[in-house]
Amino acid sequence: MSRGGSGGHVRVLTARKRTAQSTRWLERQLNDPYVKRAKADGYRSRAAYKLIELDERFELIRGCKRVVDLGIAPGGWAQVIRRRIPKAAVVGIDLLPVDPIDGVTIFEMDFLDDAAPGKLIEALGGAPDLVLSDMAANTVGHPQTDALRTMALVETALHFACEVLEPGGTFVSKVFAGGADSELVAEMKRNFKTVKHAKPPASRKGSVEWFVVAQGFKGRSADQPR
């Protein structure tokens, strides 16, 4: 149950079976302008605007022919890709089930599975221009542990990107507050012409998430092992 407050703010009344935490989450959702925009624009989640805002700043999407979406659920980023470059091949992967998206190949499996990278590239039909990662580890409530677990996923996604990207390609990944650690940034700078951190306006102010944007993949040198 909810009722309007002053200035159009919706206040949620705590139901008998609803915890205070879930009540706060529901109230935040009901009053979030990005949630309302997502519903109006037909996006599955407010996260779509994070990619839209990153694209407006860094020009990530235009001209891409093949895109990999790691951690695709619920599909907002893939929707943005399909709308902006309808002819591009798009593949995604997630542990969670994802409703079909027209023109997108979706794998419900663990990206850490040894078979996952090969399946993604086979379905894509060639090397991607853009690798996106919105993956985050399930939190355990311990900030340092949660950050380490997510950074391990970022590291794995970066390794994948450096294995498969076309020269000149782009890698975008979610990271925690403080950005990617120094060793990971150094690795990105060895492989990409530019590496920048950004927090798009659609990312909630109280959220610890940032994004790292690595552009201009230098390509794999002949002496680098596969």
TrEMBL record:
Keyword tRNA processing: no
Residue positions of the active site: 174
Keywords, alphabetical: Cytoplasm, Methyltransferase, rRNA processing, S-adenosyl-L-methionine, Transferase
Residue ranges crossing the lipid bilayer per the database entry: none
InterPro entries for the chain: RNA_methyltr_RlmE, RNA_MeTrfase_FtsJ_dom, rRNA-MeTfrase_E, SAM-dependent_MTases_sf
GO MF entry, a single one: rRNA (uridine-2'-O-)-methyltransferase activity
Catalytic activity: uridine(2552) in 23S rRNA + S-adenosyl-L-methionine = 2'-O-methyluridine(2552) in 23S rRNA + S-adenosyl-L-homocysteine + H(+)
Ribosomal RNA methyltransferase FtsJ domain boundaries: 43-217
Function as written in the Swiss-Prot or TrEMBL entry: Specifically methylates the uridine in position 2552 of 23S rRNA at the 2'-O position of the ribose in the fully assembled 50S ribosomal subunit.
Annotated family: Belongs to the class I-like SAM-binding methyltransferase superfamily. RNA methyltransferase RlmE family.
Name of this chain's protein: Ribosomal RNA large subunit methyltransferase E
The encoding gene: rlmE
